[in-house]
Write a structure and sequence with these properties.
It contains 17 helices and 15 strands. By secondary structure, the chain is α/β, with parallel strands linked by helices. The protein folds into 2 domains: 223 residues, 3-Layer(aba) Sandwich (Rossmann fold), CATH 3.40.50; 154 residues, 3-Layer(aba) Sandwich (Rossmann fold), CATH 3.40.50. It has an 8-stranded mixed β-sheet with strand order 9-8-7-10-11-14-13-12. A 7-stranded parallel β-sheet has the order 3-2-1-4-5-6-15, sandwiched between helices. α2 packs parallel to α15 and α8 crosses α9.
Length: 425
Amino acid sequence: MTATSPRLKHEVKDLALAPLGRQRIEWAGREMPVLKQIRDRFAQEKPFAGIRLVACCHVTTETAHLAIAFKAGGADAILIASNPLSTQDDTAASLVADYDIPVFAIKGEDNDTYHRHVQIALDHRPNLIIDDGCDVVATLIQQRQHQIADIIGTTEETTTGIVRLRAMLRDGVLKFPAMNVNDADTKHFFDNRYGTGQSTLDGVIRATNVLLAGKTVVVAGYGWCGKGTASRARGLGANVIVTEIDPIKGIEAVMDGFRVLPMSEAAPLGDLFITVTGSKHVIRGEHFDVMKDGALVCNSGHFDIEIDLVALGDRAKEVNTVRPFTQEYRLKNGKSVVVLGEGRLINLAAAEGHPSAVMDMSFANQALAAEYLVKNKGKLAPGIHSIPTEVDQNIAELKLKAMGIEIDSLTADQINYNNSWTTGT
């Protein structure tokens, strides 16, 4: 159902879910001390006063804390989902009812509703866009050229989104600065590796309740997300095969102790397939044809095109939902392939996404990147900009401090040595 509040325009499933959502938001906050410190400073300094902000993110308890931080900083902010299956409906309800933040997101919304919400976000005439997958920016550039002048900049959190931004830059259509949050060390080293690694397998297990020990798990892609997924699968006792197109990453996977094969050779061997490439049709018709009967297939990349579901549908004589987020395609060759989460992000479709502790750093990057754009309005050239090293370092320092961990500092002698070229053997 769609609920309407007299205070706010919004579109959420049910405001009656708000009490549970608030409880879960508060629980997530226990493991997000860095973002809390940033929010407290924002509340005093109001860096986003007078700024219209759109956040297109997975609507989870962790994202709630980012939205609350932007509001505390004075932003006129609204939140939409970055994926039709990633919304936590109780979180969305609480943000509306308890925090007065307009949210347009419903778990399971169809594509038309999803794209309508993107248009609603752009109707807000944003000055800042917090994007996850680059759908809002892409729609703005394709359909709302007249609004580009309003934009101070955008921040982007995903590999997929950065790939799209780079394509925009090559095509000469990116007319404002974009902060590359995805490649910050305190983002991809932790969020992509530890967050995706744990939450992906959490989603698989919740959807299927299968025992991973002894299974052959094929991980497509050995970027940071693939590294984390492969590592955690091996930790649960699985035999892991990695597929890659990058020779350096392929060598790295071999050196890390994984078997590396082309997908054509891995397809007949796998019990579970997980795609984390950010590319298109990594698993195709010819791979489905040779898979084991009952093979499980899922995706933990941003978009649902890594698995060629059209080709799979063409080979199926019937499709049945056998568990929540679990569909069995009975093929004409007599075998079956089981698709998890409709080929969408399995860690958010069937589970709760990344643990709060890693999103604390990712969203700290988002918050500080947005502040950096505002502070440098008019000074940054159109294009893609890295998170400043000092910001990345500061986030890591805050995280260590919150964990009660101390590290060494360079002595004066060491600083002199590092800055000298005359000392040697």
